[in-house]
Amino acid sequence: MKARPDQPLHRETPDAATGHLPVLCRATVAGWLSRADGAYVDCTFGRGGHSRALLAELSADARLVGIDRDPQALAEGAQLHASDARFSMLDGNFADCLPTLSPASWSGVLFDLGVSSPQLDQAERGFS
């Protein structure tokens, strides 16, 4: 199953849990998804928007690992893991975590390297 950016995917509105919708979420997930039963890595988990959208497209046999070191992102990841056993969260920098994950076994890896909304909206989180 290959999602297409011109077809609606699960997420077209902000996530109910976080109120956040990543920019280009549908197109990103369509490009990221190569196998419904694959193994994926979200190297910049953040609020988890891309991960939640991808999980909605994956089969019960798939798995997804999120990586982040921000305490709020880790809390979001823990909540997602509690509700979906296909997801697990790593605490750290993707540069340190990726080498431990056997890259040959992954179907897709995402790096969302843009500025995040909390960095702009909340002075204590970054830019203001």
Keyphrases for this structure?
single chain; 128 residues; alpha/beta; Rossmann fold; 4-stranded parallel beta sheet
Structure overview:
The protein is an alpha/beta fold and 128 residues long. It has a single domain, classed as 3-Layer(aba) Sandwich (Rossmann fold). It contains five helices and four strands; from the N terminus they run αβαβαβαβα. It has helices spanning 25-32, 49-57, 71-83, 94-97, 117-121; strands at residues 39-42, 63-68, 87-91, 108-110. Strands 3-2-1-4 form a four-stranded parallel β-sheet, covered by helices on one side. Helix 1 (25-32) crosses helix 2 (49-57). The mean pLDDT is 84.
Low-pLDDT residue intervals, each spanning 5 or more residues? none
The total tally of domains equals 1
Give the class from helix and strand content and strand pairing.
alpha/beta
Query: What is the CATH top level name?
Result: Alpha Beta
Helix content: 25-40%
* Number of strand segments: 4
Work out the strand percent.
5-15%
* Oligomeric composition of the shown chains: single chain
Second CATH tier, the architecture: 3-Layer(aba) Sandwich
**Total DSSP helices:** 5
As a whole number of angstroms, the C-alpha radius of gyration is 14 Å
Task: Give the overall shape, derived from the CA principal axes.
Answer: globular
Distance between the termini: 42 Å
